[in-house]
Amino acid sequence: MKLLSHPLGMLGIVLAFVLLGRVLPAWTLSLATVAASNSLIALGIVVLARTGNVSFGQGLFYAAGGYGVALIANRFGLTDAVAQVVIGAVCSGILGLIIGPLIARYTGIFFGMLTLALSMVFYGALVKTTALGGSDGFNVVRPSLFGTVFNDPREADFMLYSVSVIATGLAGIAATVYFRSELGLMSLAVRANNLRVEYLGISANRIVTINFVIASVCAGASGALSLMAQRHIDPQFAYWTTSGEFVFVAILAGYQSVAAVFVASLALELVRSFSNLYLPNTWQLVLGAFLLAVILFLPRGIGSLWTSANRKGNEPDAPAPGAAATEPAE
Fold first, then answer.
1. CA neighbor of 319 nearest in space, from 269, 260, 270, 251
2. Burial of 86 (0-12, 13-18, 19+ CB in 10 A)
3. Maximum pairwise Cα distance, the chain
4. I need a labelling partner for 319 at 20 to 30 A (CA). Which of 137, 138, 170, 293 fits?
5. pLDDT digits (tens, 9 = 90+) for 51-60
6. List of residues 6+ apart from 153 with CB closer than 8 A
7. Sequence-distant (≥ 6) Cβ neighbours of residue 260 within 8 angstroms
8. DSSP code of 237?
9. Looking at residue 74, what is its pLDDT?
10. Mean pLDDT of 179-193
């Protein structure tokens, strides 16, 4: 499985998935687009979790990116899909730069609860702001790509699928390189013992802030992709249940493999869709059983199925995002 850990191999897999979209049925394209969008924000949570902190309020940046793109698209007519992804990432990145230095002082449950509180404050503000549509939100125009508007539903779905897969794939490649960099390895040191990191003359707060900003950028880009897929935005983007779904994906994926984030997101969407289709009254029970099964039998996440660490068995089992890691992710 070296292709899943080498940047060039990952790039080839991304291009293969884009070409595969030409032969996939329409419902599969829509599901894969949602999975790619969710995996992008979950990847940011995994990046942040490497410092020992898990954010339960990524819906804040998810909604900030979506609303920023929606307002610019409706006011200035900027509908290009690539530009919207960049705008969503920039909007949330700026917000992360403001909040990051303040929240980096906290750790553990205090960090998670503070991010959740900020997200719910933003949700409440959106609900009460009539200029943004209040609780109903508002619609946005159909996205285009490099000046081309896709009126055919099949072509429009393929365009969104391609943009989502490429954006998520590039983020995954960047995360793989980052995890193996000096700063990425210092993130693991912060999670293991932040006081020792401070004794070495390295600011643990600065490392947490950097990872927090990276997670914010991923969340904003994900919000833009979801906005383009739904063509509608509302305060539900910032609600706590939305943030909880992204944390579930990060837990399912684990910290050992970047590719596992997309696999976990796709698996979660497949289970949700089929259980909702065939068991409409008990689909939540099926989804919960699936999550419990993965946590019980793959405590280090889906990525442990193909990583060398799992095959060697030289690490203790631990829950994925909160577990201490001793090696960079693949």
1. 251
2. middle
3. 60
4. 170
5. 888 888 898 9
6. 26
7. 253, 254, 301, 302, 303, 305
8. G
9. 86
10. 84
CB atoms within 10 A of CB 298: 19
Q: Which of 71, 74, 72, 69 is nearest to 84 (CA)?
A: 69
Nearest partner of 9 among 169, 184, 178, 180, judged by Cα: 169
Residue 4 has a pLDDT of: 57
Check the CA dihedral 147-152-156-158 and report its sign: negative
Structure tokens that stand for 251 in this block: 């837990």
Residue 148 forms beta bridges with which residues? 145
Distance in angstroms (rounded) separating the CA atoms of residues 63 and 88: 9
Q: CB neighbours of 141 closer than 8 A, spacing ≥ 6? A: 73, 74, 77, 79, 231
Q: Which two tokens stand for residue 29?
A: 């394209």
Helix (H, G, I), strand (E, B), or coil: what is residue 6? Answer: coil
Cβ neighbors of 303 (< 8 A, separation 6 or more) are: 253, 254, 255, 256, 257, 259, 260, 261, 263, 329, 330
Alpha helix positions (H), 202-307: 204-230, 240-253, 259-278, 283-297
Is pTM, for the whole model, over 0.85? no
φ/ψ of 233, rounded to 5, equals -135, 145
* Per-residue tokens: 281: 């009254």
Query: 3-state SS string over 29-43?
Result: HHHHHHHHHHHHHHH
- Which residues touch 24 (CB under 8 Å, ≥6 apart)? 32
Helix (H, G, I), strand (E, B) or coil at 64: helix
What ranges make up the beta strands (E) of 72-152? 138-139, 144-145, 148-149
Query: Are 142 and 231 in contact, with CB atoms under 8 Å apart?
Result: yes
Angle between helices 204-230 and 153-179 (to 10 degrees): 170
What are the percentages of helix, strand and coil residues in the chain, rounded to 5? 75, 5, 25
Helix (H, G, I), strand (E, B) or coil at 329: coil
Do residues 216 and 122 touch, judged by C-beta distance below 8 A? no
